[in-house]
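Q: Give me a backbone?
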Amino acid sequence: MNAYKRFDKLVPKEEKNRIDYRVRMEDILELPELKFNPFKERICKVFSTSDKKDGSLDFDDFLDFLSAFSESATLEIKSHYAFHIFDFEDDGTLGRQDLKQLVNCLTGKADKTSLTADEMKQLINNILAESDIDKDGTVNLSEFQHVISRSPDFVSSFKIVL
């Protein structure tokens, strides 16, 4: 019931009777739980089923989002969605560009880095050396899940509570 109430508050009055209403990404991003999350736009885009690819969420999308970030979601579900959130290029792998953008988001510099070019290259090389099991220069979903499975804090930190 709490989820429906939160979603309903985001729906304009004139749209309340429409069952197929989608909340705009801009409105979802204003939720206090997402407002300062460096991946907030990616989160909306990953959970959105909109044909327009605009990051808008209908109620089913909103429930999927809440379920994945709930305390009861499994490591497999959380790591699956985390992988897709970090796959900025939406190509099914985490390549060098995805990893660079991931580091930038985590350091608070979404568009530019606080690292030198050499530091960024070394960091990405280290990530790939640790994660890229098949040595193809990218991290696929199973490699990502393998790395995440060794991180005991991941499940407890990958959550949003309404």
Q: What stands out?
A: The chain has a mean pLDDT of 92. The two ends are 11 Å apart (CA to CA). The first helix runs from residue 2 to 10.
